[in-house]
Queue: 3 jobs
Job 1
Amino acid sequence: MFLLLAAGVVISAVGALAGLGGGFLAVPFLMLLWGLDSEMAVLVSLTMILANAVSSSVTYLRLRLVDIRVFALLVLPTIPGLFLGWWLLRNLEESQFRLLFAVLMAVVMIYILIRNRREEKDAGGERGEGRRRIDPLISAISVPIAFIAGAASSAFGIGGGAILMPLQVGLLKMSVKRAIATSMMLLAVMSGTRVIIISGASFDPFIALPFALGGLLGAQAAAYIVRRAKSRSLLYFLAACMFTIAIYMGTQALLDLW
């Protein structure tokens, strides 16, 4: 239980720094080091993300970093996606799950690296630090992407931030810090719906609760760091995390298939 608590702190802090919730590290940890199957690993991961996201959101709301308009635009389409992801997870083989997980991380990582090559500055220092008007066409495009984020969250236990972050930073032109804050509030709603409503909180409490408690502590540490870190540094940090996990999970999947 102490090991799970410590792992929850580290994983949730890393995840909150990247705006992802930590699932991209939690799922491999629970599967490869703790021996859980993919379905239970996803549920425990989302329980930790729920604690992480709620804790982070309270801080970000107090700092007025959450973009409520973007949150309102994206939150509803994610809900039906959660049900689709739950169905997909129950029909995937373990090797298929790991391979798809690795591919998802690699694709988003490549996007982040390409995006990070562009200038992020405006007259105030950081592009998009203030609120922006959302174009109706961009809003229409964002809705199906949010649906996919919900499906990915439910199927892979990543919280959905791996899709929500590029959507907000790339398409909606938000600053990285504001996107992280809004992403974490979206993850709170998504993971809560998946864990409590869809799955009925059917997890092992001796695994999930210490992990979730660590998520609470790690989220606060990350929120403190985000306020003081440079956006470009956060993007590079995000890409490095995703690269590491994509290589590891992909290797495991190929070994299973072989």
Job 2
Amino acid sequence: MAEITLVEAIRQAMDEELARDENVFIVGEDVGVRGGVFRATVGLYEKYGPARVIDSPLAELSIVGVGIGAALYGMRPVCEIQFADFIYPAMNQIVNEAAKMCYRSNGEWTVPIVIRAPYGGGIGGGLYHSQSLEAFFTHVPGLKVVIPSNPYDAKGLLKAAVRDPNPVLFFEPKKGYRLIRGDVPDGEYTTPIGPAKVSRPGRDLSIFAYGMMHYYALQAAEKLASEGIEAEVVDLRTLYPVDRKTILESVKRTGKALVVHEDNLTGGYGAEIAATIADEGFTDLDAPVRRLAGPDVPGVPFSHPFQDWFMVDAEKIVEAARKLAAY
């Protein structure tokens, strides 16, 4: 075991997959010589060369389009969108081509493509470098949507995504790139796409989160435990397809549910989890399902005080959990 950062785990995953399979390649803006704006691909250009770590033009549509075409002919592209905010130009390629190719061809064609995208606020990036876009894509059958919250899962899930025969959107909480650290084994392993994980057991309420919000949820649970409130924390990890079984089993144990995400509240991914619990776990509830999310404003403000107002953090989770526990 070695303790590494989230971004180091992501780099290790790509390095190992490039070495394992000659059909794997990386394409994106500044992924080559510069090593990525967040240094996620540093050293890979020098190790594998410009034919496998490809600097693209500033054109997200072409990054994904090239990836889809290559995937259809047996390659396994890892496409980086430098910031998730700029994925919109590639929406047609992702939603109308990659997601639907297997279905429209009756299973004859698959698209083994991974689209990596740093997402979320907390770095002072302002409107165009802080968005959380996961809810757009969890509405699209044919896609898998994955968000890791720790280095172990980041490496294992990314390796699993590269080997998956179908398109995977892999969103990475960029605020956690160097903030979140954890033990990662040296040997070969993958983390299965699909199952959620109970990362902290509890009895008084369940907190459902992913990415950076899971990191804060664990901190909140520690604080709550010092007050005598035992919160169960569930790391969703895979947002689509969602692991309803683990979610409902957790609610059955605790009777209360707090769903946390960073995106705007209205129409955010937490609504899907809340609806699932209300629909299938209603008789296990001792209180209404609660959501904690970002406010309904157009984006994360650049100003740090306003950014702090927008962002969900450990203390806001503690406050929401206290109210729910006392219900």
Job 3
Amino acid sequence: MVIVSPKKRARDLGIPINGEAGHHNAITDVKGVMVGHSTIISGEGKLVPGKGPVRTGVTAILPRGEGFDPVFAGWSSLNGNGEMTGTTWVEESGFLEGPVMITNTHSVGIVHNAVIEWILEQRMRDPDLTGAFWSLPVVAETYDGRLNDTFGFHVKKTHAFEALNNVKQGPVEEGNVGGGTGMTCHQFKGGIGTSSRTLIHGGYTVGVLVQANYGSRELLTIAGVPVGMEITDLMPEIMEEDTHGGGSIIVVVATDAPLLPHQLKRLARRVPMGISKVGGIASNGSGDIFIAFSTANQGAWTNDSVTMLNMLSNDRMTDLFLATVQATEEAIVNALIAAETMTGINGNTVHALPHDRLRETLRKYNRLIK
């Protein structure tokens, strides 16, 4: 039996991190939240559209496990060169009625269809199927065409089902997994990252998961240190001209604090502050789209009755704002540290952020803990 060592994370490398993390330092520290991945890696060499090489996948987040109990939600966009389906209804209704899915740009449609079928098979919406069934899933994307045969449409319904059926609580796999498999961040290998914060006042938890695929090298900043200006080599080796632009980032924020939709929108609007601390500027080619939900107020969704709700006062939200900023920043850094060098189509290679040189750089600026 081969024992795989856990991937390193920001705190493991002695990077100074602000804020108290939850037990797993992951979005799953918010009770009930589950995450699953389906990762597709096959082939090597020259790109043959429809055949590969393939470097892509799907990530699924279930707010309250597998039962049907919609959560209050709000969303925000910093730069809209991207997609997150279902947000019009989230804005209108105030509810997120199913999972949040993240994949590559050209697989949004198949994942959207698959989620509807999965919900139907799970009988999540109507166990007895005694009424009209409809669903407007939330499916987000970032572009992986630097490494993946993105016009090959390799994500199938089975991959979305796999991600959904693999969801679990506890530690979340990061880096080159799920929807983040073929992604690049600040011109290093990027992908999935997560983090959480626990609040002293109220005992609430905020969890964040990112799919990081954005940013230029010279702007990369970690713990206040201009890492991108210090590590200027190991640039992506891309055969063809890269005209896509700045890339994108999808961020999902979860909390158990009793927030209503307008308050969750406020939470989502704080995400860019965390991104900016790592060096993101929301370039013209970037899709920076965020959704936040609360697992409080169980049973709030109803067809025909009056519901009594709990709501945290606006004056108590500042701690949640700070937690969102801190967890977003750390989730991005965790994605960078967990990701491994990957070679994809046409031999294109995106290098991992080297841990030893990152530590040397932080030490140079007196920002290394150990």
